[in-house]
């Protein structure tokens, strides 16, 4: 097996293109880099680098060795992150990205409880309809309404959010479905599953208004503007609203909790994940 220090010096040559550049990057002298490179070539019994007058160029086999070494380096860094996470105290900032409806109407209501349980963890809630990248550290933990496919991350289904049609209790046309008017999203949300579901129910009946977020739909329905498709945990909790429509096709969204594998065992991140799971599983408005 090749000596790791020799490989590390070789990678520096491959990245910088010269022995002197590698030496500066590693904060060693030129001779050390040259010696380490020669030692690696002797170990492997292959020529890895063409030494040109002003630069170094990887040979064909050198490029293959370089690519494998980079993969080894990445794996070693991952081991270090996992070890660090295991010893990280229950302190620091954790960013949780979640759909706006869950941030505004569920998570934000329990921030005081979280703070009481974990006074040294600062929970930063990001209400984001779009997906974020955990690998680029755009968030530490994410809640998504579709099954995540990002590589390098751990995902777990934590519940299901059912939807229903809701209208104000004294909505003028509540007992006349053929005269219903609907509260929908604008055209930029045409591909959103709940928009397709709602418009499929509406059919030829008119859309009374369009709003870009679910909180606006709730307020408009409460004001009597029309019939809205709302998460049941939201509509059922509002005393001014009631569920309408007996033959409405069922619709729901899965709730997935996602974290990068390297952060999964970090104490502060684990605390946030456990708190989210407890909220959703214990809340009466969600199913398994």
UniProtKB/TrEMBL annotation:
It comes from the Bacteria. InterPro entries: LysR-type_TF_proteobact-type, LysR_HTH_N, LysR_subst-bd, WH-like_DNA-bd_sf, WH_DNA-bd_sf. Residues 1-59 form the HTH lysR-type domain. Keywords: DNA-binding, Transcription, Transcription regulation. Belongs to the LysR transcriptional regulatory family. This is LysR family transcriptional regulator. It comes from Neorhizobium phenanthreniclasticum.
């Amino acid at each position: 097996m090749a000596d790791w220090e020799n490989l590390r010096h070789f990678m520096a040559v491959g990245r910088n293109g010269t022995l002197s550049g590698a030496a500066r990057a590693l904060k060693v002298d030129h001779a050390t880099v040259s010696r380490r490179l020669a030692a690696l070539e002797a170990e492997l019994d292959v020529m890895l680098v063409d030494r040109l007058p002003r630069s170094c160029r990887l040979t064909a086999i050198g490029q293959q060795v370089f690519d494998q070494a980079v993969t080894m380096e990445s794996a070693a860094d991952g081991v270090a992150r996992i070890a660090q996470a295991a010893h990280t105290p229950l302190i620091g900032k954790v960013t949780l990205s979640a759909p706006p409806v869950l941030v505004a109407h569920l998570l934000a209501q329990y921030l005081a409880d979280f703070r009481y349980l974990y006074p040294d963890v600062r929970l930063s809630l990001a209400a984001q309809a779009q997906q974020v990248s955990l690998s680029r550290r755009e968030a530490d933990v994410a809640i998504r309404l579709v099954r995540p496919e990002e590589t390098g991350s751990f995902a777990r289904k934590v519940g299901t959010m059912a939807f229903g049609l809701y209208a104000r209790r004294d909505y003028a046309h509540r007992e006349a479905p053929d005269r219903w008017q609907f509260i929908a999203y604008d055209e930029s949300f045409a591909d959103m599953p709940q928009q397709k579901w709602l418009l499929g129910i509406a059919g030829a009946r008119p859309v009374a208004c369009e709003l870009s977020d679910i909180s606006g739909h709730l307020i408009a329905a409460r004001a009597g503007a029309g019939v809205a498709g709302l998460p049941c945990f939201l509509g059922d909790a509002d005393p001014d609203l009631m569920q309408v429509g007996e033959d409405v096709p069922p619709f729901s969204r899965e709730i997935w909790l996602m974290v990068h594998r390297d952060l999964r065992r970090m104490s502060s991140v684990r605390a946030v994940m456990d708190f989210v799971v407890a909220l959703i599983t214990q809340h009466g408005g969600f199913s398994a």
